[in-house]
Amino acid sequence: MHPALWADKLGNSWRTTFDINDSWESMVSRADQNEVYAEHARPGGWNDPDMLEVGNGGMSNDEYIVHFSLWAASKAPLIIGCDVRSMTKETLAILGNEEVIAVNQDPLGVQAKKVRMYGDSEVWAGPLSRYRTVVILLNRSPEFRTITAQWDDIGLPPNTVVEVKDLWKHVTLEKRFVNELTADVHHHACKMFLLTPLTLSEEDEPKV
């Protein structure tokens, strides 16, 4: 009954999808269904594409990283759905990624959207506080892909120079990026980046 259209008057969170199950197809379809209602999410009211399946064993580690990345960028409630008493180190590393959780908890409270599709390759992006941007390069195909995010698609002004941090490798890239960001992405996997625009003084001799 599309509660995203009216439930903000009654509560702080509402389901946007049917129940999820622990499979790639179910997870990405719930992300798609939830994204439709992105404009209705805001501080005090959040779209909920159902709980996290991370750690339940039905998906690969890369697929669970996609799951957690999309839910975090979508500002969805991060409700653990596995047995926390028997979590593996790999599961804990996903669910405990503080930099990704910080994206979810960003005070600006704007849900990321799917801003570009190239077949099974997708770019998701959303604004964060302090003029930053979160970008997810998602490969839904069963094959390796190279994916590019263009500034025009992700909402950055032309010629903006940015610093890029890989939120899963916890590494700030040495290279500075202008107008686009390209990365190689394995099948059923993603890259999640935090883009921070640089001031003129910080842009000296950018490595582009």
From TrEMBL:
Q: Which UniProt keywords apply?
A: Disulfide bond, Glycosidase, Hydrolase, Signal
InterPro entries given for it? Aldolase_TIM (IPR013785), GH (IPR017853), Glyco_hydro_27 (IPR002241), Glyco_hydro_b (IPR013780), Melibiase_C (IPR041233)
Give the catalytic activity.
Answer: Hydrolysis of terminal, non-reducing alpha-D-galactose residues in alpha-D-galactosides, including galactose oligosaccharides, galactomannans and galactolipids
Residue span(s) of domain Alpha galactosidase C-terminal: 119-195
Please state the span of the N-terminal signal peptide per the UniProt entry: none
Pfam families in UniProt: Melibiase_2, Melibiase_C
Enzyme Commission number(s) = 3.2.1.22
Can you tell which superkingdom this protein's organism belongs to? Eukaryota
Q: What class of enzyme is it?
A: hydrolase
Which biological process terms from the Gene Ontology are attached to this UniProt entry? carbohydrate metabolic process
Signal in keyword set: yes
SUPFAM superfamilies xref list: (Trans)glycosidases, Glycosyl hydrolase domain
A GO cellular component annotation in the UniProt record = plant-type cell wall
GO MF term set: alpha-galactosidase activity
Q: Which family does it belong to?
A: Belongs to the glycosyl hydrolase 27 family.
What's the protein called, per UniProt? Answer: Alpha-galactosidase
Species of origin reads Musa acuminata subsp. malaccensis (Wild banana)
